[in-house]
Amino acid sequence: MDAKQKLTPGALYGLLGYRLRLAQQAVFRDFAVSVPGLSPGRVGLLIFIDANPGVTQSRLAEAVERDRSTMVGVLDQLEARSLIKRRRGEDRRTNGLWLTRAGCTLLARALRGIARHEKRIAARLSAAERRQLLELLGRISG
Amino acid sequence: MDAKQKLTPGALYGLLGYRLRLAQQAVFRDFAVSVPGLSPGRVGLLIFIDANPGVTQSRLAEAVERDRSTMVGVLDQLEARSLIKRRRGEDRRTNGLWLTRAGCTLLARALRGIARHEKRIAARLSAAERRQLLELLGRISG
DNA sequence: TCAAATTGTTTGGACGCCAAACAAAAACTC
DNA sequence: GAGTTTTTGTTTGGCGTCCAAACAATTTGA
Asked: Is B60 exposed, middle or buried (0-12, 13-18, 19+ CB in 10 A)?
């Protein structure tokens, strides 16, 4: 009942994958607080569509490194919430993607939340450290 | 057909959460190749149980920062594969966890796979960089 | 002794990953 | 131009992980 026996982390704590998961979990939790109602992944899509209006589903999926088939359901939901619209392209296989006005508005709000979020996260890192973290992460992503 | 219009990443690429996801995805993909048949999370559990035989479900969940309720199903599966066993503790609410012999064997094999995996990942980083990456990730995880 | 907390569990929901298949449309090949 | 191949969006199904709320059994604390 007294002191719980100490837990030895074993090899676990030295594993990159494990440490990445812990970090990502912490970041996502903070994100959820700062940007309610929109998951990191979804905001990412909105940001990307905003920066590339008319982008195709496949190219979007490729750009954010997600599966084409995963994209369908997510976009369905965003469309159902009237945040984006699809429009058939001249290549009639494709759907072009645009933000609706509501989507723009929500994105703007989300971006303010993200700013707070990033600020809170970055508070634990100096600017140089933050930059280097991104650099090292980039090296790992290939 | 020629040059696809360039996609501008927008604010996305500067976001820590996004970059963490990309890195983790890359690491997990490589992991899946190096350690077939066992997800990173599950190997983590085996490692932890091995280092802390008799550990309780709740304490295990807490240690690896997962939910108690998530743990149940995963442990069910590991037990169904005869990799671990549960045994009721003297506090009769608890289940103590141990690796079975098969679990030990599989873990040993997995650890060899992980060694290859980490080596391949670490190839993109110097030892110092790797150390610093872990340090920075730790800072973020809180 | 009685109320409160803990443990494992179930249920239900959400998100994201992947693989295999399919029809429509476009791009190639001959 | 006819026929094959490729691409695109889609559906389906499965897996892993996360979270919240509830519950019975058990232990702890008042």
From this structure: buried
Contact A105, A37 (CB under 8 A): no
Render pLDDT for A103-118 as a digit per residue (tens, 0 to 9). Answer: 999 999 999 999 999 8
CA dihedral A96, A101, A106, A112 (to 10 degrees): 100
The partner residue sitting opposite A31, judged by closest CB among B12, B17, B50, is B17
CA dist A24 and A121 (Å) reads 11
Which domains are seen in chain A, by residue range? 23-141 (1.10.10.10)
Two tokens, residue B83: 């990799």
Q: List average pLDDT for each run of 10 residues in chain B, which is 142 residues long.
A: 54 88 90 88 94 94 92 95 95 95 94 90 90 93 82
CA of residue B104 relative to chain centroid, distance? 17
What residues form DSSP beta bridges with A55?
A97
Distance CA B79, CA B84 (A): 5
For an interface test with B, the pick among A8, A21, A90, A117 (most B C-beta atoms closer than 10 Å) comes out as A21
Contacts of A116 (CB under 8 A, 6+ apart): A34
Identify whether the C-beta of residue A18 lies closer than 8 Å to the C-beta of residue B140. Answer: no
